[in-house]
Amino acid sequence: MLTTEPGSKPGTEGFLMDLDVARLENESINVNTEIDVPPLRRPGGGMTASTVTTHTTFGPNVMRGAPVTGTAQFMAADILQAISMGTSIQHEPKHDIESFIYVLAYSVARKAVIGPTNLDTDQKKQLQSHFHYNFGRMTLFEILASRKGYMPLTIRKYFPGIMSAPMIALMATLDDLLDYSKSTGIRKGVPLTHETVLSAFDDAIGKV
Questions:
Q1: Got the DSSP string for the chain?
Q2: CB 91: neighbour CB atoms within 10 A?
Q3: What are the residue ranges spanned by the domains of the chain?
Q4: In angstroms, rounded to a whole number, what is the distance separating the alpha carbons of residues 92 and 100?
């Protein structure tokens, strides 16, 4: 969630919320697996504590909450595909990581759409169209279409002037990670992990 108030102090521009399952009915969720989560490296150094988490299987009724929460626009492509086909899918960490990447792209794009930029009038309209195409769609088919080629991250190519060089490099790296995570006919995908994404963020922060 991003504030629309101009001149927000650094660190108060917005906050993240996880609403993916905020309004799902019980019959849409089948929690069936508990797993041990090993310690993970923190972005600033140090390790997290070991814990236990659950894998959640989403049923075909998952979209009950989406028209209200709007979070379908941030869901991982595999989950959207499963929902559109009426099949179940096991919710894994890689899906949350993919969602976070889309939230990042949304945050950068929306701040440029509602705030001052160095874009001229025509470029501003193009940016608004790009934003609507990637985050303003309201049907599964349209949202899935915007995921082809990881379109949310292409904002760095079409509007490089609205972000810093480290952010452009970060989005390019995340784009590659998303691409490599998908299996094709000639290679098996490498799942997204917290380690690889945190490393990409560390590199970007180090260049600021």
A1: -B---TTPPTT-SB-----TTTT--GGGEEEEEEEEE---B-TTSSBPPPEEEEEEEE-GGGGGSHHHH-GGGGS-HHHHHHHHHT--EEE-HHHHHHHHHHHHHHHHHHHHHHS--S--HHHHHHHHHHHHHHH---SHHHHHHHHTTTGGGGHHHH-GGGS-HHHHHHHHHHHHHHHHHS--SSS------HHHHHHHHHHHHHT-
A2: 23
A3: 26-206
A4: 13
Q: What pLDDT was estimated at residue 158?
A: 92
Q: How far apart are CA 60 and CA 84, in angstroms?
A: 8
The token pair at 18 is 């996880």
Query: Consecutive 10-residue runs of the chain (208 residues): their mean pLDDT?
Result: 60 55 42 61 68 55 40 84 83 88 92 86 92 85 82 91 94 93 84 92 93
Using DSSP bridges, classify how beta strands 51-58 and 89-91 pair: parallel, antiparallel or unpaired: antiparallel
This prediction has a pTM of 0.68
pLDDT at residue 51, rounded to an integer: 67
Distance set, CA 110 to CA 93, 127, 142, 147, 184 (Å) = 26, 9, 19, 18, 32
CA distance 173 to 152: 14
